[in-house]
Amino acid sequence: QVQLVESGGGLVQAGGSLRLSCAASGRTGSSYAMGWFRQAPGKEREFVAAISWSGGTTGYADSVKGRFTISRDNAKNTLYLQMNSLKPEDTAVYYCVAGIVVLTTPDYWGQGTQVTVSS
Known about the structure:
The structure is a single chain. 0% of the residues lie in helices and 53% in strands. The protein has strands spanning 2-7, 10-13, 18-26, 33-39, 46-51, 58-60, 68-73, 78-83, 92-99, 108-109, 113-118. Strands 2, 4, 5, 6, 9, 10 and 11 form a seven-stranded mixed β-sheet that branches. The protein has a four-stranded antiparallel β-sheet with strand order 1-3-8-7, with no helix packed on it. The termini are far apart.
């Protein structure tokens, strides 16, 4: 019922920046809270950031606080993740998520976009 498509991933040097986008479509997709998870090779998926429907409330994993900024444009049904001061340990597949409680149990997942940070 809700489809999520990520874009904007790629290769960047340490200290550089990238902006990820997530286009949402389907029933009530734009009314859900949304966020980002990531999964590095050989590791489990981990929470990165989340944002309420209105955009007034945000949350971040400690590992990205001060470097990443999550935002959304409901008129465009699009979610963003601005990533600055990237580190090699940020290398992972990044997934867009949506749902009622995205911090613990997202209801919908995108297919992911690869982010690779070189040293």
